[in-house]
Write the structure tokens for this entry.
Amino acid sequence: MTKGSINALLIEDNPADARLIKEMLTEQKSSRFDLEWVDRLSKGIDHLENNIVDIVLLDLKLPDSSGIDTFVRLSKHMPHVPVVILTGTDDEQVATLLLRCGLQDYLVKGNVNGELLARSIRYAIERKRLEEEIWKARNELEMRVMQRTMELSDANKTLKDEIAERIKIEEELKESKAQTELYVDLMAHDINNMNQIAMGFLELALEDTALDDETKEMVGKPIEVLKSSTRQIDNVRKIQRITHNGLKKKTMDLGLIISEAIKQYSDVPGNDVHINYTPIGDCHVLANDFLIDVFTNLIGNSIKHSNGSVSIDITLSKRSDDYGNNYYLVAVADDGPGISDELKFKIFNRFLRGDTKARGSGIGLYLVQALVNDYCGKVWVEDRISGDRSRGSKFFVELPAM
């Protein structure tokens, strides 16, 4: 073991993949890695029980274990060792579930290079350390509060010292949280930069007149994926701003915002899209510059879940409630595959996805709900044709009129 190096354990049954991963880490100059390789989960657990390991790189499909159970069995034996899944299966639902269970990162082998893998390892170790510190500080705080509460009747004179101690611990927790958010921001910044570089090279390749149509289409696909990744990162940052800082509101023309959102989907590669909307002026609401994201996400959601051809009808109307309050109601209806009744109540939850062929993190509709809530409005979804989900969906956004 080299002093100052990162001790990594790779649990992988494919020798070729193991050699490639070892070569990736060996080439990195920013960090030094001592990598041990075993081809069975049982061997990995034995190694962890007898050696100091900083990080585990785990394949979910092994000869003696497969799927989510592989991670569960490993974490039961060594819950304090950070784990990064390195697998050949790109499954967002499995990744989300594992991240909620304590996994630090989920990487797909075909999408990983040495720099990304090394960075993921460093971030995973640091995040795990911060989680342990927060967990430890939280437990210490709870124990101290319980102890001081029992002694309060006999030791009122110590109250001020206890309050000061609690404030100090809370400040430490806030600082740890701020550090965690900093790492998230740094990762998002790096990923965005890599996306832009990759898109630049791919767009240059598309300019080559010697490429046939099939090749151009194949080159164009990853461009759309990279653009989608960039949009998802932007959505996460917007949600962070809404949740932690709030956004200053101003008077905005709702009809104009909808028209601007439609322009962004005037030409969607690979999809035959028809958007029907009659602009209406002088429809003012109190919102901010993120209002357009409400409608770009709803329109984009309809297109994403379509089968290549989709017709979208957008209407804007004014209504009043029984108390004389005025609202603007926007309806976005499509003729796509529709949404089940069960999913209608869950679709705006964080990271939930529909059951169609489209893939993604599901964060777009969560952003829609967060923004509409911030504008004191409501958002919901119904069947386009009442009682027949197969005829498409109809999203409603209700915002207070100025």
Remarks:
- The CA atoms of residues 169 and 264 lie 48 Å apart.
- The chain has three domains: 6-120, 152-245, 251-400.
- The chain is about 50% helix and 20% strand.
- The longest strand covers residues 388-400.
